[in-house]
Amino acid sequence: MSDSLPGDQAVRLDLPDLLADIRRPGAYGLDGTFWCYAAYLNGYHEGSGRTALAGFREWLAEELGHGTNLIWEALALRLVLPAVDASRFRSLTADEDAAVVTGLFTLLGQFRESRTSSDHTRTYRSTRIAPAREVTND
């Protein structure tokens, strides 16, 4: 006998569908900050058996040209806002946060596009993202 209740069905969102879904304001209880998106995406990655973001950190390090020892959050921040200290990704200003969130979704889109699976291996094409303009608190 199954442990599931009648009508229970596992609903699996593919990463592109999920990304479109979570960008909506307030979706999934997310507050729209980079930190909140990062936490959610890490949980989704773990729940997918570590396949949803497989290779993302390595791809970001390749795009940046260094940082293979860093977490993907710090790499994304360095790519989008190079002048901001990556160790403060949990305490960004509102303007910095908005720029990094936009950049994160751009990077995730570029990462997905760079993955090729025609030969069942993952390869990456560099698609260097232009850093966001410097954010000031004026």
Structural notes for this entry:
The protein has 138 residues and is an all-alpha fold. The protein has helices spanning 15-22, 34-47, 56-64, 72-80, 94-114. Helix 3 (56-64) runs parallel beside helix 4 (72-80) and helix 4 (72-80) crosses helix 5. Residues 4-11 and 117-128 have low confidence and may be disordered.
Short description:
By secondary structure, the protein is mostly helical. The chain contains five helices and no strands.
Query: How large is the radius of gyration?
Result: 17 Å
Spans of at least 5 consecutive residues whose pLDDT stays below 50 are 4-11, 117-128
What share of residues are in beta strands?
under 5%
User: How many individual helices?
Assistant: 5
Structure summary, number of beta strands:
0
**Which structural class best describes the helix and strand composition?**
mainly alpha
How far from one another are the termini? 63 Å
Give a quick account of the main beta sheet: strands, pairing sense, barrel closure: none
- What sort of overall outline do the alpha carbons produce when their principal axes are compared? globular
Give the rounded overall mean pLDDT: 80
Secondary-structure element sequence? HHHHH
- Helical content band: 40-55%
